[in-house]
Structures are given as structure tokens and as C-alpha cells.
């Protein structure tokens, strides 16, 4: 998995930026590429999510780790794909979105392109209580856990689970082995994926 890319910002298109690193040009799709406008020709570090399916491989990029974290969580919601997740990130701040999930604010959630009441309810069902622990916000004067982005360990685990998902395993199958993966204390994505495959074979 590609966690981030550090290189020189070569150019910007309507939906993507192009970053050159060690002679390789990476096309990275973003919510609003033009936020990088002033960095053309300058070094940049872009947090990336490597989206892999049978017929496509794409890189999605973010300026902050919490944006990447939310993007990955949104992809786990039935009915939301990469374009829908990018549209949500492009139209709302991370904290505003998390607050809306915690308050079950369907009116706010259905304001995003392509999100109807059914999808809004599904987002609340799947995400409520699972975002605020890692993305600190304040709701009605109450601080929710920390104000820090996901740790390196959490990022590594999320990348490993995404890799297992790309290999065809269902969310249900992955949820069943996740506790044992966490107990393994393995530190690399490759080791976690190998352990995950071994656990799948034991079932």
C-alpha cells in the first residue's frame, strides 16, 4: 500500500494533481486539487489511499491524515464509492461531518450530492461512535476523546484491512479476524496481511 507520496508538485488538473517522485509521475485524485496551487514546482507530501479493484487502480490524495481516515471509513458504507466520499470531503469539514453523524443530522447529510435518506441513515448506522474517538470534536460543549489524528498503528491496520478487502474478503469476514490481528502486535502492513490470510484459512 502507498501511505503517502513525497515529491515535487508538477501540475494540477480539475480533479487531480501530478506529483513527481524519483522520476515517476503520480496522478493523485483530490477533493479540491487547487488548494495545492501555490505549491507548483515545490516539494509536497500528500497522504494517499491506493484504491484497488479488479479493473482499476487509483490514488486518492489528502493534505491531512484525518481526511484520509474519514475517506476510508466512508468507503466502508454501503452505497458510497470513492467519488461520493470525495464529494463529502469536498463539501464539509471533517469535524462538521463527524458532529453531524453523532447528532444523527439527516438534513445535513442529505445535502451532499448523491446522498439520500437511505444512505444518510446507513452512514449514521455504520459510523456513529466510530469516528469521534480518533477525530477529536466538541459536541454541545463536551470534548469527545482526543484531538489527534489516527496513530501510525491505526493507519497500518486500516491499510492491511483494505488490502484484505481488495483481495475479495467481505467486511464480515474481516471483522471476525480483526481482534486477532490487533492482538498479534505486528508492525508492518505486509506482515498483517499475511497473518490475516493465515487466519482466513483457519476458518
From TrEMBL:
GO biological process: DNA recombination; DNA repair
InterPro entries in the cross-refs: DNA_helicase_Holl-junc_RuvA_I, Hlx-hairpin-Hlx_DNA-bd_motif, NA-bd_OB-fold, RuvA, RuvA_2-like, RuvA_C, RuvA_C_sf
GO molecular function: ATP binding; four-way junction DNA binding; four-way junction helicase activity; hydrolase activity
Classification via CDD domains: UBA_RuvA_C
Gene Ontology, cellular component aspect: cytoplasm; Holliday junction helicase complex; Holliday junction resolvase complex
Family to which this protein belongs: Belongs to the RuvA family.
Protein name, entry field: Holliday junction branch migration complex subunit RuvA
Amino acid at each position: 500500500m502507498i501511505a503517502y507520496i513525497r515529491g515535487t508538485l508538477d501540475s494540477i488538473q480539475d480533479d487531480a494533481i501530478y506529483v513527481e517522485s524519483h522520476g515517476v509521475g503520480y496522478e493523485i485524485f483530490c477533493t479540491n486539487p487547487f488548494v495545492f496551487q501555490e505549491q507548483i514546482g515545490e516539494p509536497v507530501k500528500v497522504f494517499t489511499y491506493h484504491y484497488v479493484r479488479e479493473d482499476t487502480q487509483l490514488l486518492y490524495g489528502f493534505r491531512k491524515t484525518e481526511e484520509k481516515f474519514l475517506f476510508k471509513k466512508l468507503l466502508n458504507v454501503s452505497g458510497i464509492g470513492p467519488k461520493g466520499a470525495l464529494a463529502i470531503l469536498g463539501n464539509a469539514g471533517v469535524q462538521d461531518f463527524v458532529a453531524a453523524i453523532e447528532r444523527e443530522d439527516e438534513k445535513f447529510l442529505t445535502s451532499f450530492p448523491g446522498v439520500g435518506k437511505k444512505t444518510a441513515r446507513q452512514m449514521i448506522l455504520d459510523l456513529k461512535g466510530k469516528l469521534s474517538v480518533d477525530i477529536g470534536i466538541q459536541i454541545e460543549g463536551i470534548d469527545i476523546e482526543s484531538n489527534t489524528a489516527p496513530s501510525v498503528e491505526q493507519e497500518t491496520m486500516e491499510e492491511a484491512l483494505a488490502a484484505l478487502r481488495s483481495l475479495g474478503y467481505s467486511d464480515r469476514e474481516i471483522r471476525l479476524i480483526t481482534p486477532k490481528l490487533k492482538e498479534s502486535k505486528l508492525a508492518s502492513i505486509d506482515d498483517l496481511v499475511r497473518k490475516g490470510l493465515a487466519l482466513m484459512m483457519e476458518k
